[in-house]
Amino acid sequence: MPRLPPVDRLDLDDLVHRYAVLVDQRAFTAVGELFTPDAELVLPDPPTSLRPTVEVRGRDAVIGALGRLTGFAATFHAVVGRVADADPGDPDRATGRVACEAHHVSVDEDGRARDLTWYLHYDDAYARIDDRWLIARRALSVDVIATGPVRKVRADG
Q1: Which ranges carry the SnoaL-like domain (predicted)?
Q2: Domains assigned to the chain
Q3: Taking CA atoms, which of 28, 48, 55, 116 is between 20 and 30 Å from 142?
Q4: pTM over 0.90
């Protein structure tokens, strides 16, 4: 695959890290702005399916789907790897894969906290619109699910 120019690689790097930070801040409207207006987000349905099977389209649908994360006391998305390739036929298109460790902390009625960790990857398609890279399609696949205890959760998220 053709390599992207360095400035595009930096812009895409910022895009995927910004997504992770904004999701953890629960700034879902801002996350929606990282997607094209007609974007597709394809999510798994664990534990039934760890592959992307549930599709939503459009920014409002993306915002709504991500809003389900408010059921957790805290989340933490760590981008651990990213590659992106230029589209050989269109300089305003690219594809990429992002590896991520996503922690989802819940607290039960007795105050015990648990961490549901997804080791996952996103298969992305990007589009440059008005000199800004956006996510046109993101398909989330879960590779491993792990759970464990949490010692303490900060109350203010």
Answers
A1: 8-138
A2: 6-150 (3.10.450.50)
A3: 28
A4: yes
